[in-house]
Structure formats: C-alpha cells, structure tokens
C-alpha cells in the first residue's frame, strides 16, 4: 500500500490564491493596454481652454485587488499653462491615485469598520492584499471626504428643488431624531475650547448624529413598529446651524414633503429644540422618555437627600405620573417639597423649571395612545455603535477632518448607501 501523502490544505489554498491573483493581474494588465492611449478621436481641452498636446505614453503602477499592474497611457500637456491630463486615468477613475476603484472600495470599508491597523490585517487575510495601515487611513479618509461632498451636493439639489424627489407613496409617520456624543480630539483641535475637564479644558468635541426612520403600523398590542431598513444616518462635528441643514436635507431626501405626520424625538438639549423649531415647525416634538425619567430621578435625589427608601418610592410614583403624562402633578407636588438648603433648593428648582418648559413634549400617555415611539433609542444606539465603537476607542485622538471623514463613511455604510456612492462615481 502506498504511504499516505502529507498535505497542508491551508498552505495550498493560500499559495494557489496568490498564483491565481498574480495570473489575474497579468490578464488585467493586458486588458488595460491600448485604453487611454493611441489617437484620441476628440480634442483634449485644458481647463484654461487651450487644446492639449499628446506627450506620448507614460506608465504608472496601479495597485488593484489582484495585485500591482503596470498601466501605459497617453499624457497630454497644455502648451499655454503646462497643466497635464491623462484621459485614461479619468476613464478608469484613477486620477491622482495609484489605487484602483475596487481596491479603494475595500480599503474604505476596512478603514471605516475597525482601526486602520485591523483593516490592514483584515485585507491581508481576507483578500491577500498588502497595504499599510497609513495607506488605509489615507484612502478611507479621502473617500469619506468625497462621500461627504457627494451627500452635500445631493442635499443642495434636493433643497433647491423638492420636485426632484417624487416619493411614490405617502409616509404615515416620519421620525427625525438626533443626539450628540463626544469624540476625543488631538490637542491642536482643542486649543481655546471650553470643556468638562477639571481645569476647564476639553478632551473631546461633540459629534452630532441624526437619524430618519419611518413607521407605518403598530403591532397587535399597539406598540409602534419601525419600518424595516428605513433608518438612515447623517452626522458630523459641525455647528448646530450646519447640522440643522444636514438633517433637514436628509429628512427631505427621505420624503418629508410626503409625510402625513412628522415627529422629532430628542433629549431636550437646547440646540436640538431650536433645530426642531426652525426646520420642522409642523412636527410633534417628543422628549425621550428615558431622559425625562432621569430628570425626575435627579429631582428625587435632591428632595430626599440620602433617604434611599423615600427616593425609590417617590421615583416610582412620579415615573408612573410621567408615563401618564401628568407632568403638572409632579411639578405641583415637588414645589411643596422644596428643601431648606439654598443650594439644594436651587438645584431642585432647575429640574422643576425643566419640567415646566417641556410639559407639552412629555405627554407620553397621549403619544402612546397615538401609537408613537417615545424613546430615542435608535439614535442613541447610533451614537454608541456608529460613532463610539469606531472613534472612541482608548488612546484614539482625531482631527476634525479625519473624524468627519470616517463619520461620513460610517453613516453611508449604515444607511445602506455605500453602493449608491460607487455607482454615482461610475456614471
Ligand atoms: Zn492650460
């Protein structure tokens, strides 16, 4: 009997993949030949208006998902201003980059999902592609910026002409929800900014995240059901005003004009309310129930200092009142319980004032009876996963530019628009 052969399947498959990729790269190199070179049927015109002249073939190494390939194409130069153009590069979407579109797409995805180093390791293991972590960072950030530009161009067009969007059917309820979360920043991005550190300095800047989703029905028990795959996100580190237009544009894209009912779900940070009143004046504003409960908890702690049992008992009662939408009752009762201590009294009054200001946004019993969501869990989960898991890992420090690029990428990915972006480039 013949001796059993020793085999190492993993070594074979890895070696074969490398061989197949390398053979594929050779085929690809052949396919590229002759494109973007030879006689141009049309005149190549410079930005300055002059007709450019061919300077013959130049080559560049293009890194593709099959490996490096050499690409020969014609270079055109402007006799007037000396600018150069490579029509072949334009055709293949590799202007000013040596990474192919397919590779860039992988690098952007890898860099948006985990750290740039992990992205590098993933690409090596999953695809046999070797690039540096720095390279992934550069490409992912570049594409994130281009995606942001794509989204803002789209927003501009939508806001100029709502007719561009013709949602086929009306949307029963459109929700708009937003929140903020701190992103750790490099020193340069923080100089002169006030923050929550003991010495008044800042370690983070606030990224604003918004989401839009829709609801068509309630379940058998009357609880609201979010339409599947209906949630899209936008976000950035930017001023409240700029963010206002960003989320408004997203709501418009998602069919704001066709919504029978618009609901803004948020905690009650003042900028959030201002935004709602400026951009969505017709909306029902609902303060997230869990934020409201937190305020009531704080109130209990201030009123019944250290009396744990009393704090617990009263909290349950008032939470029930809150659920029933009886905010006035809570206010009335707390006013009779104001503490003697001046500082505690002031604190309690601040919380009471919060309840007074927001009474109309806390009619939870009514909202529930109408089958509406009363918690902003979707956007809070977004802050944790979309921003926190990628941008708030220990030791991370971001530039505004870098953070915004990655936030853009992750918003596009999470909103299921990654392919739309690449298709828009291929047009
Ligand atoms: Zn020119």
The global form is: elongated
Write down how many β-strands occur, each being a DSSP E stretch of 2 or more residues: 9
Secondary-structure element string: HEEEHHHHEEEEHEHEHHHHHHHH
Radius of gyration, whole Å: 28 Å
Mean pLDDT: 91
What share of residues are in beta strands?
A: 15-25%
Distance between the termini: 63 Å
Structural class: alpha+beta
Task: State the share of residues found in helices, binned by percent.
Answer: 40-55%
CATH class of the largest domain: Alpha Beta
Protein described:
This protein is α+β, with helices and mostly antiparallel strands and 427 residues long. It has 3 domains: 28-98, no CATH class; 157-288 and 375-426, Nucleotidyltransferase, domain 5 (2-Layer Sandwich); 291-362, no CATH class. It has 15 helices and 9 strands. The strands form 2 sheets. Strands 4, 5, 6, 7, 8 and 9 form a 6-stranded mixed β-sheet that branches. A 3-stranded antiparallel β-sheet has the order 1-2-3. α5 (133-160) crosses α6 (240-253). It is elongated and about 90 Å long. The relative contact order is 0.11. Zinc ion (ZN) binds next to loops.
